[in-house]
Specification:
With 444 residues, this protein is of the alpha+beta class. It contains five helices and 31 strands.
């Protein structure tokens, strides 16, 4: 093939390619507007598709030890709900009286079914439908499941697994069928399995507890406890001491919280509340604090400030040199009477807890409901009965209170019985002094 022929062939091929390109360009110009998609529109379509296909997700953002925030992926990026540590200013002199029917829901009243009398109750531990109660002498423990007495523990003696006289402190973990109690005389914590009760193991803390007063504990698993001790002082008549919370992991005891200030009969940490797989700890420092304990770490949940009011006017008899008299007296009165979060339950937006202040030499039981922008105290009463509501425990938002005694002595003759009051009296009448269970949730 000659050179001239090659040149003509290449030119013809180029012309064909050019005509094809021009043809497709013309087709694209004639495309309808609804068929044309810009880059921005592609992004918009993808976004809409994702929102329709994926449900909103709550993401927990943790920044440091004490800051938590929730962000909803479906909302605006600028809408972030702050759920960090609560800062609560609570004036306990401001309180509303309210009937239980007006603040509670899912109210349950039922008698405990037992084939023997249950002595006076001094302690309760467990969950709403599976708990253990201790009698007044602290030597017998009754296991209540679904409202029925299923077994009891009375192991006073000198044999293996027996306690010398009584168990001063106890805790029950239903999920692991594990009960433990503190035998002060022997300086031992005894572990028992339940259903039926049988001795499991013991932990000797006699040497560790020397010169310390054992205050409270909660069992988190086999050989896993949180314990509170108060260092005793003998140089003053009023019972003071520095408190600390420890964790026992089956091998050693490690300090979790150390409170440097002296406290009196109001314990620095006298309440543990189970919250799912975590524990809430009410701690008295310069202010009342609420900590969450999980996986060996504590996180501050709330600071509750009751102000500088001196609620209890009783003078403190001080023999030792413990600082300025006025400062110490004010501190003791404040700490002793505003003890903070008993039976606390909280969500991202609402916190509820009970406090027991002493005002004008009177002992009160107040329910506090706090949101991020409002705090309200309530005196919850049951119409026709002469006592106010103070639960023994809380479990997943269900508050449980055990009522015991002669039904004639708890009736307020000056007030008509409310529906809940009538149910309680009817249950007490046929219960031979055994406890009656009152359970409810709060209307939040």
């Amino acid at each position: 093939m000659s050179v001239k022929t090659k040149i003509l062939s290449i030119s013809a091929l180029a012309l064909v390619i050019l005509l094809v390109i021009l043809f497709y360009r013309g087709c694209s110009r004639n495309q309808s507007p609804t068929e044309s998609v810009t880059k921005d529109e592609v992004i918009d379509i993808d976004t809409v598709g994702l929102e329709e296909a994926v449900e909103p997700i709550d993401v927990e953002l943790i920044t440091g030890d004490e800051s938590v925030a929730d962000v909803s992926q479906s909302g605006s990026k600028n809408k972030k709900r702050y759920t960090g540590p609560w800062q609560i200013k609570n004036d306990v002199r401001k309180v509303k009286d309210i009937a239980i029917e007006d603040i509670a829901e899912e109210i349950v009243v039922r008698s405990i079914v037992a084939d023997e009398p249950i002595d006076h109750i001094w302690g309760v531990s467990g969950s709403s439908n599976d708990f253990i109660i201790g009698n007044g002498s602290r030597e017998t423990f009754y296991h209540i499941k679904d409202g029925r007495l299923v077994e009891k523990l009375h192991a006073v003696g000198h044999g293996p697994g027996e306690y010398s006289v009584q168990l001063l402190v106890f805790s029950y973990l239903p999920a692991d069928s594990l009960f433990c109690g503190y035998d002060q005389n022997r300086g031992q914590i005894l572990f028992y399995k339940t259903s039926p009760f049988r001795f499991d193991s013991k932990f000797d803390i006699k040497r560790f507890a020397k010169n310390k007063q054992f205050e409270e504990m909660i069992v988190l698993g086999r050989d896993h406890l949180l314990l509170t001790f108060k260092q005793q002082k003998e140089d003053i008549a009023y019972v003071y001491g520095k408190c600390a919370v420890y964790e026992y992991d089956g091998h050693s005891i490690n300090k979790v919280i150390d409170i440097e200030q002296d406290v009196s009969y109001a314990h620095a940490c006298d309440m543990f509340v189970r919250s799912g797989n975590d524990v809430l700890m009410s701690v008295l420092e310069e202010k009342s604090m609420l900590y969450r304990y999980s996986n060996g770490k504590k996180t501050k949940v709330a600071t509750i400030d009751y102000g500088d009011m001196e609620m209890d006017k009783t003078k403190v008899d001080i023999k030792g040199d413990v600082g300025d008299d006025n400062v110490v007296r004010t501190f003791v009165s404040y700490k002793e009477c505003a003890t903070g979060c008993n039976f606390a339950h909280l969500t991202d937006s609402v916190m509820t807890y009970w406090i027991c202040p002493i005002l004008d030499d009177n002992y009160y039981r107040y329910l506090t409901i706090a949101t991020r922008d409002n705090v309200q105290n309530y005196k919850v009463h049951i119409g026709g009965l002469n006592f106010d509501v103070l639960p023994n425990m809380v479990d997943n938002g269900v508050y449980t209170m055990l009522i015991q005694g002669d039904w004639e002595t708890i009736i307020n003759e000056d007030e008509e019985l409310s529906p809940v009051g009538k149910r309680i009296i009817d249950a007490l009448k046929g219960n031979d002094y055994d406890p009656v269970i009152l359970q409810f949730k709060l209307k939040l």
